[in-house]
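User: quick one, fold this
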Amino acid sequence: MNRKKQIGAGLLVVAALALGGTAVARATGAFDDGDAQLTGPQADRASAAALRITHGGTVNSVERDSEDGATYEVEVTRKDGSTVDVRLDERFGLVTIEGDSESDGG
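Assistant:
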């Protein structure tokens, strides 16, 4: 094999490995697309904390979040029907509560 073909083949292998690594990282959750629902024990703890903070209601979704220094975002529909985003830190402590713009039409 001549030198140009070896370099070309090497570049193809590197590109394939890079794409494969990206696919694995996405599948294992290493990349956060901001819309992925969080499940499991972390979601359960975030939900419980958000409901305690809002004095009840219904949890609509739990996601990873980085806004305002938060780690989790829990969307809660309060007992009065209003919907809020409860942002929590890594220890499930309150960072902020904001009105949910998606439920307000924009």
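User: anything notable?
Assistant: Residues 24-33 have pLDDT under 50 and may be disordered.
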